[in-house]
């Protein structure tokens, strides 16, 4: 079972997530669903199913909310029933939603049947190579029945740049990236390698794969999120890396002092794979 996140954190990061998504890959995902471009006129995909893995409160649904998206079937899958309840509260009256509280690590039981598009946001960096391999294999096995694409956004890539800089930024980042590779409930996590590993596995399986950078660009308006990030990074590093306590305390104090006046860029990769 993959460790989850609070509604509060997901709400804090949503605006940054939506800004970060690569617009071209998002547009191509919409074209694949028949909601944009020539495909909208040429094909009727009103019964198409979108299976969103690690759906949380419905961030991917909101990212793909365009005219016609209410006619799709949104199959939201998450370990956390409370997050799914929040998604239903927000969208259940306006969208055709099927909610599945499921263990994401049991790939063979994921409800992928009939999916036109499988989506995920900020998920694959938490998952193991074995999970990716199993999911790609299952998607490949379904191609004889229907054509399903995969749109995986916001996979952390291990890069972080703070402004103003602090002498310990690189030390803390290295420790944090090491923590990102620990077991989050699905085996040893891919962490910063997730985007590249996913793209390579899909390419090898015969999908047409595109990737694009989708960094968080955080400034003064994101101060609350930045403060939560600083806390999360420091707590993760303190718990797992053996980093010097005084060093970490100095870094944390400096970062908090500049949370509302500085800026931060955190790298992510979006992946779109189509049959």
List the helices and strands and how they pair.
Blueprint: H1 7-20, H2 23-32, H3 37-42, E1 49-53, H4 59-63, E2 73-78, H5 81-91, E3 96-101, E4 115-121, H6 129-141, E5 149-163, H7 169-179, H8 194-204, E6 208-213, E7 216-218, H9 223-240, H10 245-257, E8 263-274
Parallel strand pairs: 1-2, 1-4, 2-3, 4-5
Antiparallel strand pairs: 5-8, 6-8, 7-8
Helix pairs in contact: 6-8, 7-9, 9-10
Please provide a written account of the structure.
The protein is globular, with a radius of gyration of 19 Å. It is built from ten helices and eight strands. It has 275 residues and is of the alpha/beta class. The model has no long low-confidence stretch (mean pLDDT 92). The chain has a domain of 192 residues: Vaccinia Virus protein VP39 (Rossmann fold), CATH 3.40.50. Helix 4 links the parallel strand 1 and strand 2. Strands 1, 2, 3, 4, 5, 6, 7 and 8 form an eight-stranded mixed β-sheet that branches.
